[in-house]
Amino acid sequence: MLMRKILGQSFADCLSCRQRILRAQIGNRRTFTINNNVFLSCQSREQKLHGPNRWVRYWHGAVQERVFHSQHLVLISANESNSSGASPSINCVFEDEISMANEEVSSLCVETERVCSLVRLDDIASPNQILHLIEKLHALSCKFSIPKVSRKRSRSNHPVEGQKTSSPDSIQSILSIKDKCAENIDRLLKIHMSHHLGVKGDGSIKSSLFDISSKSEPNTKPFALAMEAWKETHSPYSGTKAADILQSWGELYGGDINHAPTVAQFNIVLETFANCSSDDYSLFEKGSFPAESAWELYTLLSRLDDPFLIPNIDSCSHLVRALSNHAFVMRYSTRSFDSCMDSEVAAIRAYFIWKKMLDMFALKSEASENEVELAWRAHMDILNMSSDGMLRREESEQMDNKICFRIGQATEELLVRLLQVPCTYTDNKKIQNYLSQAFSSAMIAWTKEQNVQIQNSAKDSDMANQILQAARSVLALLEVMKAQGVIPQPKHYDSCIKAYANCLNKDTLPFYDKNIAHGFLPEVRKLLSDMEIDHVDNIMNRRLDGVSMSSQDKISATIYATVIDCYYRNLKSGLGHGNDHKNAARVLDAMFDLYERDLLWIETGRQPLTFALNRVLQMISEIDPSSEDVSRAAKLITRFRSLPNMCGGADSRAYSPNLDSVSFGAYLTLLSRSGSNDSSYEIANVLDIMEKEEVQLENVHYVAAIKGLRKGGNGALKLRAKKLLFDAIREFGELSVHDQDRSDFNAAALYTSMISPTKSSEAISLLGSLQKQYNETMNPRFKPDYPLYCKVLQSISVDKKAAPWKDEKAFEILGRIEEAYMNGDNKMMPNKFCMLPIINILRRNQLSNAADIALQLLERMDDLYSKSGSTSARPDAAVFCAVMNVLAFSEFPSKAKKIWSLHEMMEKRYNNGNLSGQPSFESLSIVLGACANSFKLEEQDEALQIALTVAKRAAIKSIAGKSNATFYNNLIKSFGVLLSDESRRRQREELISSVFKQCCGEGLLDDKILLTIRDFFPELYRKLPGVNKGMSSELPHDWSRNCARSQKGKRNI
């Protein structure tokens, strides 16, 4: 029970207790009773009233002990007290903007100790001397003020933008000074009460209150200063101490209308409880949490039905802050507390008090500026709880993963309600800041709703539409901000960018229409551009003008990191443009520029520069990096390594930009995929740097380095690749069993990286070596995997001079894959990566039944796809073309008809959604090649109809992609072979002339086409300029403008 016992009686007996006390001799004072409440009247009309209340009732407060404090600090420096003894004026600046001299702090400590030493004297002469010492300690305590900052509202793993967490030694010194001052003021007050006010050590009063009052004029200033001192400290017991002082004040002067505590003193206690309710609760016992004490104190005031101690806007605001802090502590604390008020109850109570405050606000004809500020602080507390999913409108709303699904809409509705509240201080800078924070909370709520939807909702179009709607809502809030005259800050742009980044999530992107999906990245780019125009240019100009910059003025690094991540997601999804990696690199350069100018804010515990660099490197490695791309990546890394370290400040720790394991892995992968001849030497340099900096090589580093060193370079580099392979295996063998289980070692990936595409014998040997190690150790880390088998098959398929035993080995490997899959290993499911090399081998070895085997493999892939649904098992354009090529080079009966049926099957599947199986000029060239090789008379009419159909499609541009010279050569050859009969000469020449004109119009005339025309239409050939001389250099250059470079220019015919 919160309420203390008074003179052995509970608070329920307080009224009768007060009546007995007030029946004492009180001179000419009069008493009267209203609703069983006893009041004192003034002695005379001329008596000066204390505060706005004409009648002050005796009060007996009740609070509990043990409150904690916030560790989030913002430093405020104050001017020295003036000569008149007035309170010092406080100028608020951020911690990293001031430099507190160590000498000043030291002298302040010495002065505090000197004053505190006077307290230890046994003889205190007079109340005036005590008051002088209390005032001196209070002045020292207020010289530097460090107000408490409420607990941050976001409880994600990432620090919140603008969060202040660290405190330098100077701040710790001031905290110690303030605690000492408050403790000694409290001690002085107790001495004063004991020696001069007749209060015993147990708190009881020695003599009548008014006997004391008649001896000397009561002075409540020591009580007020003591409460103020505890309010300014960060002691975990500040709330209890302030409440105890108010308790004593009320017991001594509760019946004195001039000196009794007013509602302002109650508000100081509530504010102190609010200040110490925002952090660790480990020191508190059950039922003694600050917010609980504040709630019961507020309830006590409300139930007393005293018209002169009615809670006001200040009271409500402080209580809402205490309850809000309590809700966040209870929700996100890593330990459990046995509290009678959980986070949900605290949030509901805060919402209830907030609504009462709104009613108070509506009844006031004119609110003071301070009341408006406190009201907006309470608004922000409610918005923050709403944005965290603590306020549920209906019981049907389910809480999932601690955040409900509709927090965005609910928080926005609250924001709209707040914007409708009249405010006469809209020009106040603090109010503008609160408005800015309010919009930010609503935006954050929408992004949190997106995250919950992505994590917990079914992955379907409805979920994707809700994610998109949330992103559009955030963007709409940004536009409303501008319309309301509130200047958007970088944090608002950050929320907008994150909202559209969620639209680019791999779980949502497949459900959007392509036209919609293509608009996400441009929107992100526009938001970044607007933010740079509004803020980056401004702060750069301020820096050039020599204006000091605070952390809040700087740009959060996460904004740029998120934009770069959007580029990466866009590229991975297949929506990317060829220049996306270049644009991402430019964003990274801009990020480096801000960092070098000390205009980039790095959140504590994060590495946004490293993350952004890694994303750019990964983007470049996803494409086929050119030498220009490699050079760009090297320049970015060089610049990154040259960036200076950032010194720690008031709100951030020291930051040092360093490459991590992912950075080296991405760069090595990029180099290994590059076609540059110098990549192998650069890989060797990177390995030397990693060894020098003692970076532990992981499997990804080994794989990329081995692949790059084997790809090019001299013999020494290739030997180093082999040494890396042996080193990786040796290091794994030296690990303990426990460490081996945690290791990412993958021998199959290492051996795969050792395989050269053109050396099939070596590939087969490496596979045999790994298979032998697996047979000897039976360690699954050495088991050959599917990518290794596919790499060996690919190496055999491209070997044009492969011996027959290698082809047999390829079919043996395919048999292993099929066997493993039939035994339940789903990772070994045959797909296009193993089937395509086998089909290409069939084309090369010219087996008599090669065509039948190829068709069977195609049917096998269809069967696997229908059972598994895996897109990798679905035949694509490359597989269809490979099968058609096998048929084209075989003696398959009516092969032109069969190949054309395969092409129509591919086209039908493409129209039904198989986008990877799109027909092209390449596939039609294979069809025409089969038509040109149809020499049997019974097949030629059918082949001619197919060729005419293909020619018609080419004429009306109904074929996807660009045509090529092979297509026109095979088309001319088809007409020449299939219309070779002299009776069809005119038709043959007309068709060839038409195709020739079309070919020249597209700039695809090459030497092979000229030779084919010479064979089948010599009259046309002889009419061409220069051909009679055996030269084709006189042909118009425009006819061959799109041919391969080696086929242009001078041609010997």
Folded structure, characterized:
The chain has 1053 residues and is an all-alpha fold. The chain has 41 helices and nine strands. A three-stranded antiparallel beta sheet has the order 4-3-5. The termini are far apart.
Architecture blueprint of SSEs:
Layout: H1 14-22, E1 31-34, E2 37-40, E3 76-78, E4 90-91, H2 102-119, H3 127-142, E5 144-145, H4 169-196, H5 209-215, H6 221-232, H7 238-253, H8 263-275, H9 290-303, H10 313-332, H11 343-363, H12 369-387, E6 399-400, E7 403-404, H13 407-419, H14 429-456, H15 461-483, H16 490-503, H17 514-517, H18 520-544, E8 555-556, H19 557-572, H20 580-596, E9 600-601, H21 608-622, H22 627-642, H23 661-673, H24 679-692, H25 699-711, H26 715-734, H27 737-742, H28 747-754, H29 760-777, H30 786-797, H31 804-822, H32 832-845, H33 850-868, H34 877-888, H35 895-911, H36 921-932, H37 937-955, H38 965-978, H39 985-1001, H40 1007-1016, H41 1018-1023
Parallel strand pairs: 8-9
Antiparallel strand pairs: 1-2, 3-4, 3-5, 6-7
Helix pairs in contact: 2-3, 2-4, 3-4, 3-6, 4-6, 6-7, 6-8, 7-8, 8-9, 8-10, 9-10, 10-11, 10-12, 11-12, 12-13, 12-14, 13-14, 14-15, 14-16, 15-16, 16-18, 16-19, 18-19, 19-20, 19-21, 20-21, 20-22, 21-22, 21-23, 23-24, 23-25, 24-25, 25-26, 25-28, 26-28, 28-29, 28-30, 29-30, 30-31, 30-32, ...
